[in-house]
Amino acid sequence: MSLLCKKALHRCQLTWLLLAAAAAAMLLIRLVRRRRRRPKPRQGKLRVAFAHPDLGIGGAERLVVDAALGLRGRGHDVTIYTARHDPRRCFDETRDGTLRVVVAGDWLPKRILGRCYALCASVRMVAVALRAARDGPDVVVVDQVATAVPVARAACAAPVVFYCHYPDKLLCVNRQNPLTRLYRAPLDWGEETCTGLADVVLVNSRFTAGVFRRAFPRLAVAPEVLYPPLSLDAEVAEAPRDAALLLSINRFERKKNLGLAVEALALLPPRVRLVLAGGYDPDLPENVEHARELEELAARLGVADRVTQRRSVSGDEKARLLARCACLLYTRGRGVPCKRHRRGASRCNTGRRTSTSASCRSRRCTRARPSSPWTRAGRASPSSTA
Question: Are residues 200 and 330 in the same domain?
């Protein structure tokens, strides 16, 4: 390399360094000014901001809504900031005005050429965090996407709580492709680094806490367990019991392994029926494709007339299904909820919260493959006479 090129490169590096220093100085001045003029909470009342990527009807969204309702019931001022809120696919509390919902960053892409979901989610959450900081919250609760943690801390100088449902780096299991590894490397590093910047890290179970420590060995932070809450005030739906109805409540995603329930149904008597209920977003290609795959699988196994898909069910409809069903199916290897609504449960014997299921304590959990153990478990269920 010529001397002229070296000098030009050195000048370029120096210019970037000066720009970075100037940006850091401006950010520091802004933080000091914001900290000075931010009004103090009134008589213990806090302004709490929840930052969530997509306020749909999944388990993570239910947790955010319940936490927001709990804080609101204690007299705090709560606002949920999200990159997407579809009134056709959300919980009632976020639609009827019970909770204040602010949408920011929805104009940003959710994917690039059908890929890069994690990258786009990170960018969208940065926009959400910046919008939340404009209202000067006293506490920011970041859900799922850790990229928003340092942005929230820098933009509003408020304590930040990060809720980790499961490390995102572990959800990408197919890394044989060198391009995938190259794409995931900065995302994984950023997830660990940003998570470590939170003032408090919460996880949904002791199992997730152990996975968290193994996934992020560089972090000295000790995650605290905050279990998803239950609504004790809700009325239990009354419906006639159906001894031949099996129920699965999961999003229409391949990782939920819903095909296992369909395969098991094909080995059960013809009077047994299956309802696949869960979150469904027509804008997500995987939801559309997997729903079609499940229909094709049911047709191929000859049980299409015994399988019903209930997409994006409401809370009331979910309660009615839970009241009617004889057995609740958990087809995923991990991520099993604690609550079973006093129904028999057949689930895979891998993953978290097996200790909270009576059937698992009595060694009645079944493995994911083949379907025959699932069939035996369904026949042996005390609440099913199939």
Answer: no
